[in-house]
Amino acid sequence: MTAGGPVGPVPGLAPAVSVVAAITDGDEHLGETIGSVLDQTERDFELVLFDNASRDRTFEVMRSFSDPRIRITRSGERLPRSEARNRALRFSSGALVKTVVDGDLLHPRCLELQSQPLLDDPGLALVAARRHVVDDRSRVLVPRRGLNGLIGTRSGDEVARKIVRGRANLIGDACNVLFRRESIDAAGGWRGRRDELLDLDCWLRLLHHGDFLGRPEPLAAVRMNGVPGQPGYADRVAGEHHAIVAELSGSSAYQVRVADRAIGAVTAPLGALRRAGLGIVAGRSAKRAEKERERELADA
User: In sequence order, which ranges of 25-73 are alpha helices (DSSP H)?
Assistant: First the structure.
């Protein structure tokens, strides 16, 4: 796959990459997300847009783009987040898959730089890159987030042990990961048992089917929303991390050691502090955005 290839998949053939977006009431930033996907140097991809029974202008935003690489479908009923992603995935056909949500942004070379390692090494199940955290105006709030200690090729065991020790989603969000369709099919897709850590739950199951590669470049950006600042968010994340650690510790698929769990118990308070800090950043970002909107209305 090269940047100089045809615009869009070759007719009659499945695209090399499917970018899948299951969106629920995401009209505010969806256009920017779609634009960043269409601006990729890698040309052999499709963008599957799945409107999860949105009540805002999400469907209209989707239809406002005229590009042969876009496929749009709509649900007649609102589905849980995991089920919406699985449903959207079924409408795609690429051997490699990336998921995005409204507000996510991809670096122009994201698909190019993440797909090539998967093509070169059949032993890889997924490739992740660092990502920026941006605000409502796409300004960087937290640069180069994630993949601490996970740059380069790692086995599933190594990744699982790092996560148990760090008590954090070191891999990242949907938009900074590219994976094989055969891996997610074998893993059973997304599961609804984790709400805040839906992605981490999926990544760990994908790593039952191959190795991990972490790239040092920030190739995506996630939008800061108000969720990290909401009451109870940090406790929900901590509870889900605890459940994931227990599951990894009891799994025959990963060789998590007693020492890993002991280190994780010591570092757990640090994870809580990181989440609290993210909540503070989210709160400040929301207040800043509100003041900017008020000034714009006053100047209008």
Answer: 27-38, 58-63
DSSP per-residue letters across 70-139: EEEEE-SS---HHHHHHHHHHT---SEEEEE-TT-EE-TTHHHHHHHHHHH-TTEEEEEEEEEEE-TTS-
pTM above threshold 0.90? no
Q: How far apart are CA 160 and CA 156, in angstroms?
A: 6
What are the φ/ψ torsions at residue 188 (nearest 5 degrees)? 90, 15
Model confidence pLDDT, tens digit, residues 101-143: 999 999 999 999 999 999 999 999 999 999 999 998 899 999 9
- Domain 1-103, what fold? Spore Coat Polysaccharide Biosynthesis Protein SpsA; Chain A (3.90.550)
CA-angle at 249, arms to 243 and 252, nearest 5°: 120
How many DSSP H helices and E strands does the chain contain?
9, 10
* Rg (the chain; Cα; Å): 19
Please report, as a single letter, which amino acid is at residue 134.
V
The segment(s) of the chain belonging to CATH 3.90.550.10 are: 1-103
Q: What letter does residue 10 receive in the DSSP assignment?
A: P
Distance between CA 79 and CA 202 in Å, rounded? 18
Instruction: Give the Cβ contact number of residue 54 at 10 Å.
Output: 21
Instruction: Give the H or E element holding residue 221.
Output: strand 211-223
Angstrom distance (rounded) from CA 254 to CA 50: 34
